[in-house]
Give the backbone structure.
Amino acid sequence: MTPIRVAIHGFGRTGRQAFKAIWAQYRDRIEVAAIGLRNPSLAASAAHLLKYDSTYGRFAPAVGVSDGSLRVGDTVIPLVSAERLSGLPWAALGIDVVIESSGAYTTDRMAAGHLEAGAGKVILTDPSDDADFTLIYGVNEGGYDPARHHLLSAGSDTTNALAPMVQALRDRFEIKTALMTAVHAYTNEQKLLDFSDTDLRRARSAPTSIVPTSTRAATTIGRVFPDMAGRLGGYAVRVPVPTVSILQLTAHFDAAPTVDEINTAFRQAAAGPLGRVMTVSDRPLVSSDYRGSTYSAIVDAPSTITIGPLAKVAAWYDNEWGYSCRVADIAAFIGARGSNGRSPA
């Protein structure tokens, strides 16, 4: 199979981790053929941060910038930029798929410039209300139609943790309603020190506070499971750790399943197709133990509790690396299906 040609537009935390995930898992199937920088003057910084990561350590290959390109080992990747997305050289570079990870173009209307520039497909690394399809890899990729779906949302890291949990429970029990809380690592959207923001809680110092905030994961799940729309709500609590979060899901069932029945449902699901993205742990571990996990969700079996028809379950997820691995999975999946609705070579 001819490798799919991918461009990564936006080389921040998600873009760099997606690059590393592709490098580690899919170099035989995906060629990163371009990297789009919104600020080309920061090329040297982008290369430095790819090599040296405060959370994950050093990236093994040699990394540098020369002649307008990023060099990773023996691989040379053009660095490109344009005032408008439609001006990016995707047609000239033969780009099949753009990973839109800048965080600046999160709707169909905004990101459509990539398609105008000649890309076959776009993967948004954000939830989107108007994407052609929200693809949660490992859960609903069977609904992807390459002839109709050109602008795809990969959801959020939390959506990717939530979806397999909901799927596993739905396969065994009837969920009437549910509430979720994402106890989430801080991100670059927050402030190092107090700083003005329209969201008064996000205006506060991330390393020194627990910060309640909103999440779109609960509403996005309705795009994955339409019958759950309006029956699952929730919010996030940002906490002072750099990565690895835990999702707590409280579900109201029509019956009263036991702790053992619920954990058995998760184990059986993880032994099947969902096992690509979800596993179950019985070990008494903490968040730092899951740094670098490739799973979307690691169900923490000892945390499962029930009272009658109510059950509370929890799952860990490396909100950076695990999510970036799913973005890489989606790119490879699109390539296998034909990036422009055509059969792959």
Notes: The helical segments are 13-25, 43-51, 90-93, 108-116, 157-170, 217-224, 259-270, 321-337. Residues 341-345 have pLDDT under 50 and may be disordered. The longest helix spans residues 321-337.
